[in-house]
Structure formats: structure tokens, C-alpha cells
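Let's study a protein:

___
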Amino acid sequence: MNGTLQEAGYGMIIIGGTALALVATMLGLFVTPFLATGLASGLVVVGTIALVPRKAWFSAGIIGVSAVVLAGMLVPRVMLERTAPGLMMPLTLSVSIIVVVAAVTTLHYVTFQPRVA
């Protein structure tokens, strides 16, 4: 598999894991949001091992799991406490999208971008 497909696949895994954690947290599908976030983080760790070059496992794993935890669990909890009920859903989705885009962009430059010597 070439680097472009690996990068796209890993980005999709992060997006999917974040979406899983976000939806489960917002709808209360699990007893606690920690279960959904743990499941999504496990998905990201498996994707890291499968799609990321071995030298970059640590950095890609940290960035991916951090994106899932921030966008999938912390952002909804903060928005629930700090915003008005009518604004909670659009603000949560907007901030979560910003976090995921920042994570995927950081991954591109840290993990998948070839080094120029």
C-alpha cells in the first residue's frame, strides 16, 4: 500500500473513531462516555499499527488518540456545561470538526510527509 492510501485510511479511521465517540457521548449510548472513547481509541491504536510506518507509531498514536479524546468526549462535555441548549449541538460539532481537521493536518506533516534533508 502506498503512502497516500495509508494516510487517507488512517485519517478515515481517526474520523470514524471520533464520530463513534462523539455520537455515543451525545446520545448516551453507553453507561459512561469513557466506554465509547475507549472503544474508539482502541480502533485508532489498531489503525496506527496497521497503517502507519513503524518509525512513526508513537507520534501518530498519540495524535490520533488525543483527537478522539478531545473531539469525542471532552468537547461535548464542556459544551454541555458552558453553552445554551439551542447552541450546544452546532458548537459541539463545529469545535469537534476543527479538532479533527487539526489532528489530520498535524499527522500529514509529522507522520506521512517525507523529510527533506
Notes: The chain has a mean pLDDT of 90. The radius of gyration is 15 Å. Residues 3-111 form one domain. Residues 85-112 form the longest helix (28 residues).
